Amino acid sequence: MKYAGEMALIDPHTHTLESDGTDTPTELMQNAAKAGLDVVGLTDHDVTHGWDEATAAVSETGVSLLRGMEMSCAWNGITVHLLSYLHDPRNEALLAAARKTIDSRENRARIMVERLSVDYPITWEDVLNFAPEDGAVGRPHIADALIAAGAFENRNQAFEWALHPRGPYYYHHWAQDPIVAVQQVRAAGGVPIIAHPRARMRQKLLPIRVLMDMIDAGLAGIEANHPDHAARDVKFLREISAERGLLVTGSSDYHGTGKPNWLGQNTTPAEVIQEIEHQGTLEIVRP
Ligand code: AMP
Ligand code: ZN
Ligand code: FE
Ligand code: FE
To answer: Helix 208-216 to helix 231-244 angle, to the nearest 10 degrees?
Structure first.
């Protein structure tokens, strides 16, 4: 197995233009090769639309592909991101939850644009220029429209105030309950791993007791090494994982030029990826 071995470089959480990244799936695979990765995980928000194109680029790039999705969830108004790996992409319950999220995201984005347009020169059509055709429209696409309008220089700046959850323009969207989501991912043959559970600058943190409920519901692992986690968060999450016998992953959460995160910024050991493949319904696509 190409990716097995001590020196394998594996980055299991990235985004493309199919959600809010800036690479096409082919470009992601090419950039992963340039970054020296052996395996890359493609985990767009709420869609698996990039899987086929990325799969087609495996041979030419020599990079193995871990197929995944980052499922939007919410608990009591707090956003939770659940990575689902190697699930059946035709599973009806997961597709229904994703459809409901995508529809609610559109409604939410329209409301936020309505609010923002009072103070900034943007329209819904401007945002559509940056959003994926049939996918999860998110705040990053609103940020892109604000940047195009000259209001901000980059996404990060737009997020500091105009798009911040505690700012005046924010509006929520529906998302699946994270405990139900863990059960649904398992039922779809997927491997559920909670993404960046301590990314505190974004919003209020998910209470630990809810994380414990997710573990009881079948959570397979915790993404401990993430660019938004401080060293103490990583330590804390590794302790919980050890206590509860969970997998520990690390990733860049690469978004192309949409975020400063670079491919391979954090990585996951080959043994962990092998266990994910063992638990999942699909296989890793190898050259
Ligand atoms: P949404 O799901 O629409 O609420 O938007 C959240 C997404 O915005 C996350 O998936 C992040 O990738 C992205 N995001 C959050 N904070 C920032 C930031 N400061 N700069 C760029 N992207 C961000
Ligand atoms: Zn994102
Ligand atoms: Fe996320
Ligand atoms: Fe992500």
So the answer is: 40
Domains in the chain: boundaries: 10-85+176-279
What average pLDDT does the segment 10-31 reach?
Answer: 98
Q: Residue 239 class from Cβ within 10 Å (0-12 exposed, 13-18 middle, 19+ buried)?
A: exposed
Query: What was the pLDDT predicted at 6?
Result: 56
Confirm or reject: Cβ of 196 under 6 Å from ligand 1: no
Please indicate whether residue 13, judged by its CB atom, sits closer than 6 Å to ligand 1. Answer: no
- Mean pLDDT for the stretch of residues 190-208: 90
Q: Say yes or no: CB of residue 67 within 6 Å of ligand 1.
A: no
Contact 145, 130 (CB under 8 A): yes
Atom of ligand 1 at shortest range from CA of 70: 10
204 — pLDDT class (breaks 50, 70, 90) = confident
Span from the CA of 2 to the centroid of ligand 4 (angstroms): 25
Rounded to 5 degrees, what are φ and ψ at 79? -75, 135
Residue 158: pLDDT over 80: yes
Residues with Cβ within 5 Å of ion ligand 2? 20
Identify the band that residue 200 occupies on the pLDDT scale cut at 50, 70 and 90: confident
The class of domain 10-85+176-279 in CATH terms is alpha beta
Given the CA of residue 253, which atom of ligand 1 is nearest to it? 12
